[in-house]
Amino acid sequence: SIGPRPLVLCGPSGSGKSTLLKRLFAEFPDKFGFSVSHTTRRPREGEEHGVHYYFVDRADMEQAIINDEFIETAEFTGNMYGTSKEAVRDIQSQGRVCILDIEQKGVEQIKKTDLNPILIFNNPPTIDELERRLRKRGSETEESLRKRLMAAEVEIAYGLTPGNFHKVINNVDIDVAYEQFRDFVVEELKKQEAQGVHFN
Ligand SMILES: Nc1ncnc2c1ncn2[C@@H]1O[C@H](COP(=O)(O)OP(=O)(O)OP(=O)(O)O)[C@@H](O)[C@H]1O
């Protein structure tokens, strides 16, 4: 492969993925990048095609999915969203590690591609603690909370199955978890550098 391996961070909603990624970006601003997603929704004021999203119509997106161009797609409130393989390769070709915050289905999909990702699972201490974090975040209705907690049980079983991920972060204390996450990633980047991968 041409550039740095993409980095997949997977874990239940509320397990702390965004928190870890925010810290990683803050510490190494130029080493990582997010791929640009596709969407069928209309651009909002100030949003640019190819920057915030690739704005496409539904027929084109459906055809691209049939052509197997996407790693992950989802539908929210009547609009399609997705991450294309090409968008990941764009980040790679800039010498940056493409960060992907994706769900189990996306992990299963990306494993079938030639993108050769580093796969990390962010494991919450318990379902009860996950519930506390989500309640404290204040982002969920009772209904969406229940759905997320039910999905979490399945995701954790998948995450902890040997061979599914290269690394499991047990996200109890956020500072400890971040250190483990960062050290693992930095170690991986060093290995790739030693193998001649060019980084930004
Ligand atoms: N180790 C931790 N201990 C306590 N609270 C945490 C920890 N990690 C994250 N949090 C808090 O838990 C909440 C969920 O974290 P975050 O939003 O990062 O999760 P997420 O996995 O990105 O969720 P989603 O998939 O829904 O976006 C946030 O309010 C965050 O501040």
TrEMBL record:
Enzyme class: transferase
Enzyme Commission code: 2.7.4.8
One Pfam family it belongs to: Guanylate_kin
Spans traversing the lipid bilayer: none
GO MF annotations, alphabetized: ATP binding; GMP kinase activity
Gene3D superfamilies: P-loop containing nucleotide triphosphate hydrolases
Domain Guanylate kinase-like: 4-186
Alphabetized UniProt keyword annotations: ATP-binding, Kinase, Nucleotide-binding, Signal, Transferase
UniProt family annotation: Belongs to the guanylate kinase family.
Protein name: guanylate kinase
Organism from which the protein derives: Drosophila busckii
